[in-house]
Predict the 3D structure of the following.
Amino acid sequence: MSEPFRSGFVSIIGRPNVGKSTLMNRIIGEKIAITSSKPQTTRGRIQTVYHEDRGQIIFLDTPGIHKSKNKLGDYMVEKAEESIGDADLVLWLVEPTDYIGRGEQHIAEILQKYDGPTILVMNKVDKVRKDELLTFIDAYKDIMDFTAIVPLSARTGENVDDLIDTMFTQLPEGPMYYDEDTLTDQPVRDIVAEIVREKALRLLQDEIPHGIAVVTESMKRRGDRDLYDIEATIVCEKDSHKGIVIGKKGAMLKSIGTKARPDIEKLVDAKVNLKLWVKVRKDWRDDKTQLNSFGFN
């Protein structure tokens, strides 16, 4: 008798910068969610799909749960907490440490209201000694009743297959929600914008990145050729930031485009002519109308 087909929605939660997007990209095998060393990189709830013979896992990669400082922050935290209620299974990502701070305690309080299975995923184990790992796991054991605890490295792929096996033991029997060719419900234009934002996050100074958004203004295939003409606008909050984003003689803007183009070409499987512009929208992160126009609604 064959094993039943299992499917369900899995919410990946955790504090900013614990590796949620890196883990999702590792499992899916495609670059869907952007990553950087800066916290709060993911801003929306990104839905991606993992397929195999055993079933289908739909991942909800969410913004990091943090103390909000503006309306954009409110939106991000709301989306993260909302995804828990929609999930058949929750993955709580933490870093390997025996210090459980207020941020983790807050997430534990949120999870107490969730009555489904929760797997504690201790990420970045490639950065600690194996003899330290048990101590770190013990520190989390008593916080709540976890269905399982899986230590892994999303960066290297260590133990990621073990996590996939564990998830399938917890998901219910269910239908195929998406066809086998679907990797994400994100429009290509949105992923293009996120790729540009990722490169900007990595290249710009620390005080600028969270004050920027990226909008894909146009994306057109040039006739029958394998070539797309894409125009995108980087939006920043201050005139002084605009100069930094553009850089001396346009050098920074050129660097952002140069680094973004290969990822976009891989995404659309064609050559790309990418043009970037920079506009100022003062205090857009606290302006509900502008947040809505950028898709944060």
User: Anything to note?
Assistant: Residues 251-268 form the longest helix (18 residues). Residues 90 and 118 are 5 Å apart (CA to CA).
